[in-house]
Design brief:
74% helix, mainly alpha, MetI-like fold
Length: 273
Amino acid sequence: MRVPFNLALGAALVALVLAVALVSLVWTPHPHAALDVANKFAPPSAVHWLGTDQLGRDLVSQLMVAARNSMAVAVLAVGIGCALGTGLGLLAAARGGWTEEAIMRLSDLGFAFPALLFAIMLAAVFGPSLPNVVIAIAFINIPTFARVSRAAANQVWRRDYVWAARAAGMGRFAISRDHILPNIAAPVIVQMTIEFAVAILVEAALSYLGLGAQPPNPSWGRMLSEAQTLMYLAPQLAIWPGLCIVTAVLGFSLLGDGLRDITDPRLTRVRAA
C-alpha cells in the first residue's frame, strides 16, 4: 500500500519535533536560562547558531527546551483526556439508557468551558503553571473523546460477533474490553493526533497570556509574547518560535489526516475509484 504524502510529511515533521524535544533532555548548545546581557541580540554565529535574545540567552537552547515543554504538555493532557473520555464513551455505549444520556449531557456541559477560560480560573485559584495548563487542556479533551468513542462503540455493539459474545454469556465490561475497545482504536488514535495539534496551540496561547510556563522555563508562546515589543529591533525572536509552532501543529494535523485516510475504508474506496 502506498503511503499517503500527507501521512509521510506529517510523520517526518512530528519525528523532527520529537527528536528535538528528546535531545533537549540530555543536551542543549548552552544552558537555556543562562544570561549574558552583554551579548544580547547577538547575530547567528558558530557559538550561537540562531543568535541570542534580549537577555543574551541562546535562542536554539530556548527553542529546544520549549519543544520539550510543549510536547510534554500535549502528551500528558491528551493522554489524560483520551483515557477518561474513552472510558466514559465506552461506558455510555455499553450501558445505554439514562447512563448514556447523562454522560452525553455532561459532555455538552464540558464543551461550554473553553480551555482558556478554565485555565484562567485555575490560575486565579492556584497560580499560573504548566500543570494547570495540562489540567485545562485535558478537561476540554474529555468530552471530545467521549463523543468519538461512544459513536464508534455504538456501531461495534451492533456487529454479529458482539451479539454472539453476549449470547455466550460475556458481560458488558468484558465485551467492551475484548471486542469494543480494539475495534475503536483507529478513530481514537486519529483523534489523538489531531488533539495533539490543538493542545500545542492552546499551550502556546496560554503561555502567551502568561498562564503557562513561567520564567525561566521557556515556552514558544511566551517567547512570542516577549518578542512582540521587539519586532522591529529583532524580528527573529518572534519568527523562530512561530515557525516551531507551525511545524508542530502542521505535523500532527497532517499525521492525523493521513492516519484517517488509511484507516477509514470509505476513503480508501473513494481513492481506489
